[in-house]
Every structure is written in C-alpha cells, then in structure tokens.
Amino acid sequence: MTCREVTDFLLDYLEGELSGEVLRVFEAHLAGCEACVAYLASYRRAVRLGASAFRDEAGKAPPELVEAILAAKGGGSIRDGAPAPRAEPKSGASPSRA
Ligand SMILES: [Zn+2]
C-alpha cells in the first residue's frame, strides 16, 4: 500500500469501515510510515473539529433560516402576498462566544 492509498482509505479507516485484510495492510503501512501516522493524527483532529463545528451550527438554526424554510414549504405563513423574508439582521443574534 502506498501513502496515496492510505489517504484514500483514511476516512473509511476512521469510520471503522475497513475490512480485515485492507485494515491489516493499512495498519502495517502506518507502522512503518511516520508521515502517514502524522497525517492520520491531523486528519482525525480535523474531522473531530469539523464534526463539533457542524453540531454547533445545527444546534442553533437562525430564525431567518427557519422562516425561509417554512416559507419555501408554502406553509401558509405568508399573508397578503408578502415577499419572502430576506436575511435582515435581527436583534438578539449577537454571538456571545469567547
Ligand atoms: Zn505512508
């Protein structure tokens, strides 16, 4: 297995989807390749950061987005033929994260 192949299998490896034989070859390469070990470590950390960031975004759907989705669904919340709500800045949307 080459380093290039390792990068191709990296995501599957992190998700535990590598089959036995491929997994053995994969780990055998890691055992003797510091570059791939370092790459794996940074990749794993990046995935974790990305996952947590995504979870954070999903946890706080902005009200503008909710309204836009409801309007797009034609949920009857639009009256008097009012145009679709635009992304106006609303109060209370101040990010208070340090
Ligand atoms: Zn390698």
Question: What would a concise description of this structure say?
Answer:
This protein has 98 residues and is mainly α.
Query: Uncertain runs with pLDDT below 50, 5 residues or more?
Result: none
Give the terminus-to-terminus CA distance: 44 Å
Strand content: under 5%
Q: State the shape.
A: elongated
Rg, Å, rounded: 23 Å
Could you characterize the architecture of this molecule?
The structure is a single chain. The protein has 98 residues and is mostly helical. The protein has one domain. Helix 1 crosses helix 2 and helix 1 packs parallel to helix 3. The longest helix has 26 residues. The chain is elongated. The model has no long low-confidence stretch (mean pLDDT 79). Bound molecules: zinc ion. Zinc ion binds next to helix 1 and helix 3.
Please supply descriptive tags for the structure shown above.
98 residues, mainly alpha, 61% helix, binds zinc ion
